[in-house]
Amino acid sequence: MGENIIILCGDGSIQDYVSELATRSGEDLGLVLTAIAFEDEKVSGGRIEEDRRYGKETFQTFDEPIFIGSAIAQLAGHADAVVVDSLDDWAQRLLMRFPDDPVELDAEISSLTSVMKAGMSDLLLLIKKPEFVTGSAEHREMAARILTSARELAGTVIDATIEPPSVLQGELPG
Question: Residue ranges of the alpha helices (H) in 58-136?
């Protein structure tokens, strides 16, 4: 059964730390990146799928700005660990995609929690600590809502805004 790990970030890059943490789960690594321009998003379920460096390792990468639950599930079917970078960016993209549709917002958050419950592989979810989330009040609220939902299912929570990173809940894998 896979572990759910939340990594609380700041404004700095923690890719090296996250990639080292992911390799504790095994060698087959997946990465879901939410930061893709909407005009670059492929239609009808297509995703950019390629091996890409992230930190110190190579990951099979999906660029997916909205439907991260299905991207995670695809990767978790074979990967030892899947990294999602980042849930606060995803929150903003959900609000842009579904500005007046709370049902769709709920459905996407449910898709994330569903793959967390499935535990198909270790899942490392990056999200900025609330004090680092910028943007509108609605964006900050959505990021906080996602963090709350994910944290309920996380076995481990790490504060990576300090050096060295500190485990706030649970313990490090491997």
Answer: 68-76, 87-97, 102-118
Does residue 63 fall inside a structural domain?
no
Residue ranges making up the domain that contains 86: 4-54+72-169
- With respect to residue 67, please indicate whether it lies within any of the assigned structural domains: no
Q: 156 with 172: CB under 8 angstroms?
A: yes
Tell me whether strands 48-54 and 57-63 are parallel, antiparallel or unpaired: antiparallel
Q: Element (H or E) spanning 22, and its range?
A: helix 15-23
At what angle are helices 68-76 and 102-118 packed, to 10 degrees?
20
DSSP 9: E
Considering only CA atoms, which of 108, 98, 104, 96 is closest in space to residue 146?
108
Tens-digit pLDDT profile for residues 120-149: 999 999 999 999 999 899 999 999 999 999
Asked whether the beta carbons of 121 and 81 are under 8 A apart, the reply is: yes
149 lies in some domain: yes
Distance, CA of 163 to CA of 139 (rounded, Å): 27
CATH of the domain at 34: 3.40.50.300
Domain count across the chain? 1
For residue 64, is it within any domain? no
Angle at 150 between CA 27 and CA 7, to 5 degrees: 50
Tens of pLDDT, residue by residue over 51-91, are: 999 999 999 999 898 999 999 999 998 999 999 999 999 99
